[in-house]
Structures are given as C-alpha cells and as structure tokens.
C-alpha cells in the first residue's frame, strides 16, 4: 500500500515536472524569436537604416494647435511594434526636439513605418469668431 502511494506521488511529480518543462520550452521559443528580431533590427540599423532625414508630410492641426511632421522609418516592416517603439524612444526622439512623439503606423504604400511627431504652436487660426464679432458689431 505504501509503495503504491509513493509511486502515485512520483507520477504526480513527473507530470508536474513535464508541465514545467513544456512551459519553459515555450518561453524559450518566445525569447529566441524576440532576440532574433532585436538582432536583425540592430543589424539593419548599423547598415545605415533608421530615420530618413526629410519628412514626407508636414502641416498644422488647428484642432490640436500643433505643428506636425511625418517621417518614414527605415526599419523592416515585419519588426514587432514593441521593438519599433523602443528604437523610436531610445534612438530617434532626442534628435527631433522640440517635437514629441504622437503615433506610429505601418504603411503599405511606403512599405515601412510612419512616425508622426508634433510640437505645440500657439497660433489661433479660427477666423469665424473674429469675423462674427466684427459682423455683429457693425450691424
């Protein structure tokens, strides 16, 4: 009876260990994939890819009161968004002062990541208020 109980406990321990091994193998595969992506991104960066100097679009958003620029990032399109954000934060934003990060999207048209940055520009562009005030004050 004691041998059966010990054998049953050993079988339970074996099952638990197999579950832990499977879990660790999954984590190892995920981490290996993440590291391959990171290595590829850094290799491409060393080869001269990164932020293209000229913005593809620039303008003023009256609703937000911001001057914005859109850049095409010379990063691979298959790079995970987490790595794109890390590269933007750690490598690109400091060179774009006084602009701050607004958003990043992948564009099929440009076959790459588009980063939008903005800076506050206190310029009132709403003519309706001034026009209406003048109109009603004259009538």
What is the CA-CA span between the terminal residues? 106 Å
Computed CA radius of gyration, to the nearest angstrom: 28 Å
Q: What oligomerization state is this entry in?
A: single chain
Order of helices and strands: HEEHEEH
Please state roughly what percent of the residues sit in beta strands, choosing from under 5%, 5-15%, 15-25%, 25-35%, 35-45% or over 45%: 15-25%
* Broad shape: elongated
Mean pLDDT, all residues: 82
**Unreliable residue runs:** none
Number of strands: 4
Textual characterization of the structure:
- 50% of the residues lie in helices and 22% in strands.
- It has 139 residues and is α+β, with helices and mostly antiparallel strands.
- It has a four-stranded antiparallel beta sheet with strand order 1-2-4-3, with helices on one face.
- A hairpin with a 4-residue loop joins strand 1 (57-61) and strand 2 (66-73).
- It is elongated and about 105 Å long.
- The termini are far apart.
Features:
139 residues; four-stranded antiparallel β-sheet; 22% strand
Topology:
Layout: H1 2-46, E1 57-61, E2 66-73, H2 81-92, E3 100-107, E4 112-120, H3 127-138
Antiparallel strand pairs: 1-2, 2-4, 3-4
In short:
This protein has 139 residues and is an alpha+beta fold.
